Amino acid sequence: MVGSVCGRALCFGVQELMPHRWWILGSGGHGRLFADAIRAQGDAVVGVLDDSRPADELEAGISVLGPLRLAWDVKTLQCLGGASSPDRIVVAIGNPALRQRWQQVLEAAGSPVGVVVHPSACVSPSAQLDPGCVVLAGAVVNADARLERGALVNSGAVVDHDAICGGYSQLGINAAMAGRSRLGPLASLAAGEVLGCGENRFAELELASGAADLSEGVSCAGSSG
Questions:
Q1: How far apart are CA 99 and CA 79, in angstroms?
Q2: For the domain that residue 93 is a member of, what is the CATH number?
């Protein structure tokens, strides 16, 4: 998926005529940030899945539909949603390994995983954003940068030209990746941290439970997720 210019008028090169309906997995801090970005880009958040809140409770005006495990069951989700069934879903979980796990669940179930770009972010038309990526307010993604599946660029962070954010990696607030740098899968930059020109950072990875090789699933070593 190719990036966009600043603002809402053009999103990934295609003018948006109708607002999308979104569901969010997770209603914590990331969930609230993602909801704000989705609404700011002119779309609607019509439901949340979360393990910590009872079904039918409202979270910031959004209905909690049930626990995360419902992401496995598309038919049940559609019944719960009714007329408000989504055409976009995103995982709002800060733990990279858990974000990976739940996005893979959604993709295996055939759910429509979307891309969220706050309208105050600036994303180059030549940047590539894979499904599940989120770019929050004031962030910059420059020419020929790539955000792989589920990557998160927090508010004010910068991904400079030709930099690569690996799958489910994340940049904290005001973090920066200089040109041609690489953040590996599941790796993170803390708030304000800088990855220099051409530098690499990789998370310490281990096989996920039941995986035969890295292509079948990885997790951050020592992660509780």
A1: 24
A2: 3.40.50.20
180 part of a folded domain = no
Within-domain flag for 99: yes
Q: Structure tokens of 114? A: 């979307």
If you search the block for the tokens 């539909």, which residue do you land on? 65
**Is the distance from CB of 115 to CB of 97 less than 8 angstroms?**
no
Phi, psi of 12 (to 5 degrees): 55, 35
Give the integer Cα–Cα distance in Å for 204 and 199. Answer: 16
When divided into structural domains, the chain yields a total of 1
Whether the CB-CB separation of 85 and 192 falls below 8 Å is answered with no
Q: What values do phi and psi take at 124, rounded to 5?
A: -60, 145
Domain that holds residue 27: 21-108
28, two tokens: 């914590």
pLDDT tens digits, 134-180: 999 999 999 999 999 999 999 999 999 999 999 999 999 999 999 99
Q: 212 pLDDT band (50/70/90 cuts)?
A: low
pLDDT of residue 14 exceeding 50, the answer is no
27: nearest Cα among 78, 93, 106, 107? 93
Cα separation, 11 vs 3, whole angstroms: 7
Q: pLDDT tens digits, residue range 28-79?
A: 999 999 999 999 999 999 889 998 876 766 666 788 888 898 888 766 666 6
